[in-house]
């Protein structure tokens, strides 16, 4: 009975989940729940909507119902951004509202944002009012292409534990591989699909569970330290 009681008290790693361009939190929730229930149950996942209503056609029209949202806007070359600083402030507000947030999980535009935020936070350019981002799950990600932001986001290696999904047919795959060059000791899941949240096969499930075990141990140790310090 005692061990069961202790299991109930374990705090799961909590992730703020940043959805893809012109989709929504509800859509990402459906995408992530392709994964086995016992995997999703190991994480505490929060699925907000991005701050701006979609300013154009969504690629998921006819697949997922509206409304659709976007985190920020960009030019055709993806090199200049509109509303990017407003987006960073909005994400900080979400972290405050839904805290404690341990990590960021992102898909597509949300993945690009998630991977950039630890570096921007370390430079004091984002998330200055919230605790350090400790974990990343990056699905179909890439680096920012705006030089002014990229120079700051990746000037130091990304050292927090991170899990990266690379799709064989994903048009962003080369950019996802380039991102991994800036990461210390990443966990990597290769899958045969394109730009999507993939299902987990036996091999990727093993990698996923290994990553979750690692971050759960970190969160559990932090909770023990808080208890011992009377916090």
TrEMBL record:
Domain called Serine hydrolase: residue spans: 11-202
Domain of life from the UniProt record: Eukaryota
Stretches assigned to coiled coil: none
InterPro entries named among the record's database cross-references: AB_hydrolase_fold, FSH-like_dom
UniProt name for this protein: Serine hydrolase domain-containing protein
